[in-house]
Amino acid sequence: MNRVVEYYESFDEWGRLDREPIEFWINWHFIRRYLPQEGHVLDNGAGPGKYAMKLAEAGYRVTLTDLTVKLVEAARMKAAESGIAERFEGFYTANAVSLHQLKDSSFDASLMLGPLYHLQQEQDRIAAVKELYRVTKPGGIIFVAFMPRVRHLLTSLMTPQHWKPNDTADNLIRFMEQGTFDHQDEKRFTGAYYYPIEDIQPFMETHGFETIKMIGSSNIASLLQPEQWNYWRSRGEEEFSKVLDLIKQTAENPYVLGVSPHLLYIGKRRE
């Protein structure tokens, strides 16, 4: 996991969600739709805490965990600067496969929007989901992020020099068979695992969750270039708002999940 920590210590994850607002906006829309009215929420693998801050601002009690010490401290500082530190029950440096600081059935809802696609070994992915099950209350809602394998194939085919070693046919074939990706260039997104979309629901249900919905976090919007966004913005606020509503509706369409860089699995812990 050292490569993952090193990457996030130098990468501006908060800024990424500012630069890619559709992903955050769609995720937050569906998170708010399915969250309980109140309660204690875990943001597991929270990075600098973009979602955790929104949860705290919305009145939830929040516990934040992340593997990277630097990001946990950044989240603690952000909460203090924003005047919402009292809404946080704790900030923990923790590996998603072993949340030993957290008690059983502690959370009314839990987010895990990063760890699972950085766990390249199946036993680690299973351990992380089991830990999520353990700390979430029976009936509690969970939100888990996945990265679909077919989208990374598309991305690699479109910009092969940007995603080495996926710049050769043999490496692309290997990637589609195994799902693991380790960037050849230093300080790039690495140590990742991409899921076959058809495997996600069975995987979560096997480990104690009932599926509610699968969402394409940025879905078809991820294919638009800046000049195309600029066109729709130039049409005026009302029309641009209608376009955003269409994109939000498309997020629920199961037939376009594969074009989205991130998927949001929404489920419920079985009693």
Automatic annotation (TrEMBL):
Which GO molecular function entries does the Swiss-Prot or TrEMBL record give? methyltransferase activity
Q: Record keywords: Transferase included?
A: yes
The family database entries (InterPro entries) matched by this protein are listed as: Methyltransf_11 (IPR013216), Methyltransf_Superfamily (IPR050508), SAM-dependent_MTases_sf (IPR029063)
Give the GO terms filed under biological process for this record.
methylation
What are the UniProt keywords, alphabetically? Answer: Methyltransferase, Transferase
Every Methyltransferase type domain range: 42-144
Specify whether Nuclease is a keyword of the entry: no
Q: What is this protein called?
A: Methyltransferase domain-containing protein
